[in-house]
Structures are given as C-alpha cells and as structure tokens.
Amino acid sequence: MFKFLKGVVGGSGTGLKDLPYNIGEPYPSAWGSWTHHRGTSKDDGSPVSIFSLSGSNAQDGHLAAGRNGVKRLRTVRHPNILSFLYSTEVETFDGSTSRITLYMVTEPVMPLSEKIKELGLEGTQRDEYYAWGLHQIAKAVSFLNNDCKLVHGNVCLASVVVTPTLDWKLHAFDVLSEFDGNNESATGPMLQYEWLVGPQYKPMELAKSDWVAIRKSPPWAIDSWGLGCFIYEIFSGIKLCKTEELRNTGSIPKSLLQDYQRLLSSMPSRRMNTSKLIENSEYFQNKLVDTIHFMEILTLKDSVEKDTFFRKLPNLAEQLPRQIVLKKLLPLLASALEFGSAAAPALTALLKMGSWLSAEEFNVKVLPTIVKLFASNDRAIRVSLLQHIDQYGESLSAQVVDEQVYLHIATGFSDTSAFLRELTLKSMLVLAPKLSQRTISGSLLKYLSKLQVDEEPAIRTNTTILLGNIASHLNEGTRKRVLINAFTVRALRDTFSPARGAGIMALCATSSYYDISEIATRILPNVVVLTIDADSDVRSKAFQAVDQFLQIVKQYYEKTSAGDTSAAVGISSIPGNASLLGWAMSSLTLKGKPSEQASLPPINSGAPLTSTATNASSAMDTPSTAPARVNSSTDLADQPVPVSPTSTDGWGEIENGIHEEQDGDKDGWDDIEPLEEPKPSPALANIQAAQKRPVSQPVSQPKLQATTVRPKNTVKVTKDEVDDLWGSIAASAPKTTSKPLNVKTASTLDDDDPWAAIAAPPPTTRAKPLSAGRGRGAKPAAAPKLGAQRINRTSSGM
What we know:
The protein is an alpha+beta fold and 798 residues long. It has 30 helices and ten strands. The strands form three sheets. The chain has a five-stranded antiparallel beta sheet with strand order 1-2-3-5-4, with helices on one face. Strands 6-8-9 form a three-stranded antiparallel beta sheet. A two-stranded antiparallel ribbon has the order 7-10. It starts with 20 loop residues before the first strand and ends with a helix.
C-alpha cells in the first residue's frame, strides 16, 4: 500500500523531509526498542503518534521484527487494536556511517503507564476503569487467538496504549505470528522473534522453547499467560521483574482472583480462554462497563430501553469517574444524538456532562451537536432543546443563531401545539439579542404580531413581556412603529387581565424610548382608562403608570420652562424602572421544574404555560419581586384546548415566503406585514374581535355569533372582522347606554387618530328604506312578484 521511501538529510539525521507529519517530543516509555513520539499532521494539524525504530544496517534483527510489526498492524483491524495510518523507512548518513530508521504513524495514543499516573484514580473508580480497560484488551486478544488464529506473544503493560477517549488498545505486533498447531512435522520455532520477549513474561513452555508442546497447546495458551502478567502489572502498579512475583496476589481484586489464577495455570491446556474471561467474570459487572457497553450497542436497543437508560444517565454520570465521562461517554452521547439513535432525554444528560467542561471545550465538543439537533424532525428533541436553551444559549455565536438556529426555531411560532409556541416564544429572550436587525424586523416581529392575538391568553401575555425585553435591540425606527401600538392598541385592550397588566408594565419599562408628545397623546389616554378596570391588579398598575408618566411630563415642563429645549425624555433615574424590566425577564424565564417528559402536555394542565406578575405594587416598587404564575382556574381552564400532536414530524410547517394580508389596516405596525395563514378558528376569531372596539349590527341584519366557551366574554363579529387579522383598531368604546355604532362607522376610523373613536357619534335615527323597485321612488312600490311572496308560499307549503 505504501512504498518505502529513502531520503538523505544532510548529516544531521534529525529530520525527514518526505514524512507528511511533524515529529514532536517523545514519551518516556515505549515497548521494546521503539521510541514513541507525539506528532501532528502537516495537512490539518491533527494529532498523531509516531513510532520510530533505528538500526545500523538493513539486516538488523530489531528492524526485521519492526517490519513484521508494521505489516501485521497494517492488515489487522479491530476496535481494540491500534489503528495504523502510515509508515516509511529512511536511511541517513553521518560521515562514513549510515543508519536506517523505520517510522510508523498511528492514531494519537499515549502509554498506559503514563495515562494511569495522569488520571490518578483511586478506590472504586480505579477498579471500574481498570475493569473497562481490561475488558477491551481481553477482547483484542480473543480476536487474535480465536478469530485470526494468531499469537501476539508479548501481552504486557508496555504493549497497551490509551487513546484520547481513554480506550485501551493493543499494539507491539513485532512478535506476532500465525499459530501452526496443525503442522505436526514442524520442529522449528513458531514465533520467529520470540527472543524479543522478556524472560519474566514467558510461560514455562516458551522459556524452554518446547515448540512441540506449544503446538499441542490451544492457540490462546501463550497470550492467556501474558494477559495474567498484564493484570498483575496494572493492579500492583509496578513492572513485572521476575516470574515468581506473579504469586503475589494481594493486589488482585477478589472477584478477579480465580480467573487470574486460571490464566496463569502451569498446564497450557488448562489455561483460561480469554473469550471465557469476558463472558464469565463477575469483575466486569459494574456501572461503568455496563454504561459504555449500552452506549456502544445503542442501535440494537428498543425505544423503551433507551428512554429508561437516558433518564437515569444524568444521575449515573455523577457516580462515574469524571474524566472517563467527559472523554468517553460524552463523545458517544453526542454522536448518538447527532445520528438519531438516542432519545430526547439524552439531551439532558449531554448538557449536564457539558456543564463540567470549560467554555472552550464546551464550544468544541457539545455546541456543534446542539446546532445540528435544531434541524431534527423529532418533536421531542426540539422541545428538549427549547426547555434547556438557557444552559447553552449564551454560548451560541450571533452568526450561528442568525444563519442556522433561528430558521429552524421560527417554525415553532406557527406550531399547532400551544405548548411548543410558548417554548419558542420564551427562547427568543435568549436568542433575540443575537439576531440581526434584518431578521428581527423582517421575520421575528411578524411572528410576534401574530402571537399577540393568539388564542391562548398566556401566550399573548408573554409576547408583550418579550417585546418589552427586546426593545433595546430594536432600531429607533422600528421602536417608533411597533412598541406603542403593540402595548396600547393590543395589550391594554386584551380581555385577559394579566395581559393588560403586562402591557402597562412594558410601557413603563420602555418609557425612555417615547418622546413627550407620544406620552401625552397616545400613552396616558390609554392608560388612564385602565384606572377603572374591573381587575384591581390592573387598576393598581395603571395608577402607578399614570404617576410615572405624569412625572416625566412634569420634568419636561420644568426643563422647558427653564429654557432647556433639549430636555431628555426618560426615567432612567426613577428606581421603579429597573424593577419593571427585571420583572419582565424573570416572569418570562420562570418555568418551574423542567419537564422531563418528551410528550407534549395539554395546555390546561396543572402547570400553566406562562408566569406573569399578579401583584402590581410589589412588581413596580420592589426590584427583587418574585413573579407569580397566572391563576388559570377561571381563564385558562375555560379556553378550548387545542390538540397537542404527539407525532415526531417536526414543529409544523411554515411557508418560506411571508405574504401580505389583503386588508389595508396595519394597526401601526406599518411594515410588519402579517404571515398568511388559513382562516382562524372561531375561538381565535373571538379573541381578535375582543381586542377591537365591540360593535353590533342593526336589528334588521343577521348577526354572526363567534363560538366561545366563556359566555361572559361573548363578542359578536362580522365575517369581515373574522378574516381580518389586523383590522381597524380604534380606542375602546365608552361604556354608555347609547346605541352602539354601526360597524361601517367603525371600519372608517383612522388608525393613527386615537381620538376619532371617542368623537360624537352620528345620529342614531335611520332614514326610511328605499323602495325595492328601481324607479325614482315617486310612487309606492308594488309588492314584488318573485322574491318574498314566492318564498313565503314555499315556506308555508313546507
């Protein structure tokens, strides 16, 4: 596969110009005469290990054995055998003498003895890790002996290396040879390079070079003895010096002692097969081995087993060695999630393990997997991502959020499940600051305009809270067009009292963005009306808001009277303002105990979708106010519960293009065009109509009753109002005993004039109806010959 290359490096012999790898510092130990170096690829800088072996001439016995090891390692592939990458042989000259060096490049590893010192494990955690590593080496030896009919010949501590994921791998194949037990006529040595093996590692028959007895023994006899020597070295912590030391069993675990003695039997035929060691030893039955083994065969498990395992994994990970969890389990878990073999609860375990990493390691090992998961079609995965977004959201870069994450999250705004719409809305508190102005104005605000008329009152309330929090991330022109209309025209007229309260507090928290004319002509008139609201909490907040905005107007008056025409508008110095924004944040992010269920709960379950403040005075006066959840016993419970899909078909689909409604009214969000969607349900039509000025039809015209489950909020709307998402939004109608205005009059009001709605109503008298005929109307019209009379006859006949 690879040709041996020979190059000449002038005199020094320290470099190799044709080797596509950089040779680094050597490790202090390696097997045999090899030197183990750290190294990197010249192409991409990826880490590798480089083994070098030098000899004075081409016929050197060590070089011949090294070439055998390179050839064997290149052809033998197994998960627990060192992975070969590249090899070359170079001859260098120093004066009149030459030196031949054999280079072998493998995956990055380090000697096991060095890794054990680095980890410093003790007690149960050490025994669990040793059990896992010994399990891997036993599988590698079993593969060679039983499947390949090969004899390694020198299994010991020096022939085992460790990968960055803490896996143990077998190497040092210089002595490896085929087992020719069936060749009874052979009398020569079966292991050509057995002289490389230290005498302390040789079983009795190999020490005596009794090749007849060796050929009559099972293929695993020599390597089973070597595995026993390896067990002694890792548990005693010292290198084996004499064969007699194997009798010292004080450091061997009791659960492994019997198998250890069978591996070192003096009779080759009675030595334990390494495959039996893997199957029978109770020593390998521990939490670490079972956990890693489950992860490696995850694709063979059913959904129930996966779900049970991943729900226990966060607590189990705390009991396992931390380094092994981060370097072994974490990559396995990330890979399982990325390729779809892991269930949604696995994300909780991934984030918990990720919390033990540094910020740099988290961005490298965990974050790329999370970004890829946003494109998943598994609804349960997406719910879990949104529920835990506060744990990783700050680590996402603005470019990744704007270009990759948001496109997938935005589909949740239009999902049929109110639970998923709510989670999507709450996630914007973390992600919105990372979005570009183009995305905010062109997409996010259009979705929020729809959510402000959502059929779920909790979602409408939290949409108002979110707008108050992201106001600082909007440009000045967008704030002018959006905030006042969103808070006054919609939030303050919502039928849900916490939504009205949220609108008042959002106005107060964003007061620094309004000029004095907006406060005087648009904000105060709408807030004053709520001082007589039916809800005491809303009234309390309204009075405090009126005082706050009047104080701003008063400050402006005092400064202009003093000749300061550049008087700034804002209340950054008022202590109450800081608490308002804090209340909005905490109420939006308060979720209670995160749900571990992958299924979507019903909207009117015991845990409400949102949390909003119900105590206005405490929320506005005390910065550390703890928000309370909305009591949904009378409001949320009465709402019709939409069906929560349980299939894992994604978040629901949304068209790529955002189309404009045919209606002309935009209630102030002039360039925030609504998203085109199917005809709203009766419940949604009721909510939309309730936020407009209520109107009634003349007695002579039929009335369309909007379906609702709350009789006290019943609103009668026309078909045009149901189909018009934006509609004409005017000021609330005065509560008088006069006859309501005609709907045609309401539809002609100017959206930009909040006073037009409270102007004097037109005369309530009606002109006499015109004749049904098409003449001049000078003479009474005759009864029609077709219309009413024929219909009456037909109806009477029926």
